[in-house]
């Protein structure tokens, strides 16, 4: 499919009980980028420790290899874009990073700790936030209530503890005007904003965005880019899977290209977009 939008689905885990992680208070969420704890992994940028490192991570579904010895470091504070043809394994990679899938081989480090077998909820509590390709808010709850749930679920915070945070997020994601509207009645752009806001309400240090610009008009996309840019400027590390390339390259500092579960390119966005592999495999241009 041409790089623009995508329609394949991703299953969202629904809140169930309220698991208490033994290290649910780790790390200190007040710390900002550059004040990391734990032994740093090697990073491609000297002086910036890696918030996330993958070492030869592999995953197969039966005979289909969807992650093939994937390795990379993500320096804290960076925005990394992930592109690749449909079925390349991009959402699977997110599921491996967040713990929704277990790798067959390899190691994943987050904030200097081995989290390869750590359950998704504990990774979320440690600051991994995620938006899903298909927004699935609680439709009968208002926008505000959706954010209250996201901000308190599984955490030691009550609704009154999070009200100020939620109000700030409503402003930053431009949802204030619809705060008291049921999520089921929102436009697509508002649903995308709510998806972003719900991820932000979990207080992420690392924010994973899965095709959040898909299906938006150019004007809506521009508005969303500005919101994501502002979040990134506030210090949040981002990994963003996107087929809307102009949106992605307006924000990210590095691009990773996946094809059949393999990393076939990683580096400066302009150089990556100009590479033969991307032109031939992803853009379908004969070089
Ligand atoms: N749970 C699963 N069981 C079996 N096959 C799966 C499963 N999840 C994904 N796949 C397959 O793995 C491959 C990679 O899927 P994935 O959703 O990660 O690709 P993607 O790059 O995100 O694609 P898109 O751009 O269309 O969203 C696809 O062929 C898909 O059909």
Keyword list:
about 290 residues, Rossmann fold, six-stranded mixed sheet, 9 helices, globular, AAA+_ATPase
Give a quick precis of the structure.
With 287 residues, the protein is an alpha/beta fold.
Written overview of the protein:
- The chain has 287 residues and is of the alpha/beta class.
- It has two domains: 49-127 and 204-286, Rossmann fold, CATH 3.40.50; 136-203, no CATH class.
- The protein is built from nine helices and ten strands.
- It has helices at 90-98, 120-125, 143-152, 159-172, 188-201, 218-233, 245-249, 269-273, 276-282, and strands spanning 50-61, 64-75, 79-83, 105-110, 113-114, 128-130, 206-210, 237-241, 254-259, 262-267.
- The strands form two sheets. Strands 6-7-8-3-9-10 form a six-stranded mixed β-sheet, with helices on both faces. It has a four-stranded antiparallel β-sheet with strand order 2-1-4-5, covered by helices on one side.
- Strand 1 and strand 2 (64-75) form a beta hairpin.
- Helix 3 (143-152) crosses helix 4 (159-172) and helix 3 (143-152) packs parallel to helix 5 (188-201).
- It is globular.
- The chain starts with 49 loop residues before the first strand and ends in a 5-residue tail after the last helix.
- Residues 4-44 have low confidence and may be disordered.
- Bound molecules: adenosine-5'-triphosphate.
- The site of adenosine-5'-triphosphate (ATP) has 13 residues, from strand 2 and helix 1.
- Residues 6, 8, 61, 64, 66, 84, 86-92 line the site of adenosine-5'-triphosphate.
- Pfam families: ABC_tran.
- InterPro entries: AAA+_ATPase, ABC_AA/LPS_Transport, ABC_transporter-like_ATP-bd, P-loop_NTPase.
- Residues 1-25 have a biased composition (Low complexity).
